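Tutorial, part two.
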Amino acid sequence: MVHDLAACLPQRVEAWAFRTDIRFVEFFGLPGIGKTTASSRLADSLRRCGPLIGEVKVAWGRRTFIGRQINRVGIVVPRLMDRRFRSVIVRIARFVIQSGQESILDAVRVIWNFSVLVAFIENERSKSHSIVVMDQGLLQGFWSILLKSKRRTTSETWLEILSAIGIDDMVFVHLQGEMGLARDRLLTRDDRSSRMQRASPGSGPDLWSAADCACREMAADLGREMRAQDHAGALAMIDVERLATPEVVAERAFEKVLACLDRHRLSELADQRV
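Running the prediction step on this input gives:
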């Protein structure tokens, strides 16, 4: 597909064919649905486009646990001098506290993880043009908060905070599939990295139903928000069937992301002509 596109482009514009202001591709969906595998394979596919896309990074990369924590502190601390960054983190903290988490430790952990994520996004935005692929991002963070919230009434919504962080340069890829498929896949993992793995056995079915409902509601709300705004990033929906291989899912994501990049580029060109 990419080679066919490249062959049809004049030599002078080939290197910029799909380059837009899109800087982030973020995967979103139930734990176990295949976000990490799909994001890694998508990054490989985008890199094979070469100059058509530009530089492609995978968020965080591979680090030891200690290395990750040092890197996180190094990202957040300099950003604390930025008034806008502090304002966003205060809004996130208020949202987390008002939503009512299971414990103070849960609230602190979520606020810190969000602080790292927002600082990382701001850092990448300040660098030269590239596309960063994330298997865990802003939507997954808000999903985690909503999943454990005890109160749904807060002074502002997660969408308002998301808009304050900025979504104009983002493509959100929602991997949607049966919750039974995600649960079965997650149970084969032994890393205990997801709170769905750490949940008490008795809360299983209800927790998974709530998780699935939250994912679908968030994707629907974000889709409506993006349709109501101009240049508000993009949302790509990918169906994950039980028999679909990781390669098939990644290929679907690749095609959808390329289509999003092309639409964004054409929209930018139209604005430049006005």
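The beta strands are 24-28, 56-58, 131-134, 170-176, 234-239. In part three we will examine how such features are distributed along the chain.
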